[in-house]
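W.,

You were right to be curious about this one. When I first looked at the sequence I had no strong expectations either way, so I just let the prediction run and decided to look at it fresh. Below is the sequence, 359 residues in total, followed by the output.
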Amino acid sequence: MRYLIKYITFGLCVFLFLLLWSCGEVVREKSRVSADRLLSLFERTDSIFAEEVTLSSPLDSIGALGALLVSDSILIVSPNTPPYLHLFDLSSGDLIVQTGSQGKGPGELVDFSNFISRSPIPGYIDVFQENSQRHFQLELSTGILAEVGRLSGMCMNMIYLEDSVYFSFVSDSSKRYALSDGHGVIHQTFLDYPLSENIRSSDAGLSLAYQGRIEKHPEKDLFVTTTTFAPQFEICKMEKDGLIKLFELYLDFPRITDQSYEGSYSVSFLPECMVSTIDMCSTGEYIYILWSGREYKEDYDVKFNSQTVLVFDWEGNPVRKMELSQPVQYITVTEDDQTLFAFAVDPTDFEERILKFGL
């Protein structure tokens, strides 16, 4: 009888364990939405047709493009060769000024590792040099480029807030985001890497795997981030107590192999790893994501060119899906949400073009 009770007790324990495990798996599966399911969330799909933008300086004379931004009726084109910044008048296409020669002196940029974004200071854009850890501000009316801060070598892809405070991805840390100052000192880190429990990797490896894009709301302390090599999207708010997550959509995690050793940080993306966000931009109303949905094993020109732009509001609600008339690599939208500008390589003659799409 005593042994029978033991067997019954053991059986009940096994049953309860399997029941709880199965419930957990059901919840987990429900939280994972496929990429197709993501696209199906958009009830509205619009076909948007391109019009070529004529610039006074053709792109083939500027060099391969590295970044694109529109701000205050000015189109900023940043190629991978010096001078690194070309400013064009949106209405006429005329070149206003070119600046950012190569060098280490005042107003000079070391290399092409530039991120450009709208600045919280009216009439300026922010230029970040990732490799040399320097922050510049470009005055749009004069073309004067001035260094205003030093960045931490642990910070990547960032947004300038104000008063020499930066919000960024952080490397070699158990947390994903950081606040740092203009002297390159990190003061606070926030939030874990989503779904990282599925990855066997060091903190440095995770920081490489989870790189992506950051955009800030022009008026509110809201941030939207995406992960390039996983369909992940979150909106956060900065408060006194720290960074509060307002919306999250995690469809998968980066599929990698960590190859870091002896202080050298490296990851290898697996063939089935999904490329999700090619580029992202935002306005005070909407967030625009140039969506890939391709696997890492596909050709570069396939996985990093797309005709699909997903539009969300700042609460994470899907607004509409736009299908552009041809694939593009970079996007930027005017502050009034009326026009999307994009960089594209024509599939027939392979010429580089700037296109505009009326929204």
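Here's what jumped out at me. The helical segments are 2-31, 35-40, 203-209, 300-303. And, maybe more interesting for your project: Residues 232 and 250 are 5 Å apart (CA to CA).

Coffee later to discuss?

I.
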